[in-house]
Design brief:
Rossmann fold, alpha/beta, 14 strands
């Protein structure tokens, strides 16, 4: 497995961006705002001396491994934040719900938590975030940091996408195939993608690059519940594609690359950032993944040689010594840190309302 960086983003820059849409926006009901003993305005999600944040994750579905890493990294950040005194003397608490990448559970989880939390430090799933976007923008107005990169989420003052959207990430992925893997004008490339906001946003990117570079995209739409990629590999092989873009989950990546290797279909495959988990390397597909699989990412990988990355690895290993390292840790920590910086800015403004 190899990684190519679609774009570099620092947590500090993200925090500065998020402060603009942080916790000082107008609340749903100004009459419901309260003044704490320290003169800080509070509202939804503040109980006593606790700031409550929501986490809507996937611990049991298609992104279970990544959901676990993202959530544990956020719990680690909150633990360290609280140990350092919290925010304005308030402790931060995460209220976690596992939606298992189920649409009904995701929306019902949002409906349950929204009145109880200041905002959401995590919300996995582009289709699910898109499903509540109108509510977030129209009445709820709580900051939501999605673990989702659909372009459909852009433009909201409250839903803040951290990193490149899937269309931009896929443009960079196809450019990598052109620059590094010998793909040229006239070639066919395959694109296996989830139905819905995630896959269709990524498809915009591959179609754009195909038009620009004179390629043909052979499309294969799948559902998140489709784990066996045998039919898709057969179709792409028959079509004569020279490379494959994958906008799905880790299970689909292992199946696609593994089946391709077993059938002698030796082509490079590049996935979006959520289409890999390091646990896959221990499966039968591991050798094939190491040879032919690449991952586009909007951030530095967990193994980056930077002081910040090394500290995060050390802290995470100390907290979760039995768990593998993956880029979900970076994504989770970055989002939690960005939310934390927004809270600190709101604290200085003496306004912890939405």
């Amino acid at each position: 497995m190899n990684r190519t960086h679609a774009a570099g983003v620092t947590a500090g820059a993200l925090a500065a961006l998020l402060v603009l849409a942080g916790c000082s926006s107008k609340a749903k009901d100004d009459d419901a705002d309260k003044q704490s003993a320290g003169g800080i305005k509070t509202g939804e999600g503040i109980s006593g001396k606790t700031i409550n944040l929501g986490v809507l994750t996937d611990m049991t579905g298609v992104y279970a491994t990544l959901g676990k890493s993202v959530t544990q990294a956020q719990q680690l950040y909150v633990k360290q934040l609280n140990a350092a005194g919290g925010v304005c003397g308030y402790q931060v608490a995460l209220t976690i719900r596992d939606h298992g990448y189920d649409p009904q559970k995701a929306v019902s989880g949002y409906t349950e938590l929204e009145p109880k939390v200041l905002g959401f430090a995590q919300f996995i799933g582009s289709p699910f975030v898109a499903a509540v976007k109108q509510r977030v923008d129209g009445q709820d107005k709580g900051l939501v940091l999605p673990q989702a990169w659909s372009a459909a989420l852009l433009g909201s003052p409250y839903i803040r996408v951290i990193g490149s959207t899937y269309d931009i990430e896929t443009i960079n992925a196809v450019d990598f195939l052109l620059q590094e893997k010998g793909i040229k004008k006239g070639d066919k490339i395959g694109h296996v993608y989830f139905e819905g906001d995630y896959g269709e946003s990524a498809l915009v990117g591959s179609r754009y690059m195909a038009k620009e570079a004179g390629l043909t995209v052979v499309e294969q739409k799948i559902k998140p519940t489709d784990n066996d990629m045998t039919a898709q590999v057969a179709a792409l092989k028959q079509a004569g594609v020279k490379a494959v873009v994958l906008s799905a989950g880790p299970r689909q990546a292992a199946s696609l690359v593994g089946v391709a290797a077993a059938s002698g279909f030796d082509v490079p495959v590049i996935g979006n950032n959520s289409a890999f988990a390091p646990q896959l390397l221990a499966t039968q597909a591991g050798p094939a993944l190491m040879k032919n699989y690449y991952v586009a990412s909007p951030s530095l990988p967990i193994g980056a040689e930077t002081p910040e990355a090394k500290k995060l690895v050390a802290d995470y290993r100390a907290a979760y010594p039995k768990d593998a390292l993956d880029n979900g840790i970076v994504a989770g920590w970055t989002a939690a840190s960005a939310f934390g910086e927004a809270l600190k800015k709101a604290c200085k403004n003496k306004d912890l309302t939405r």
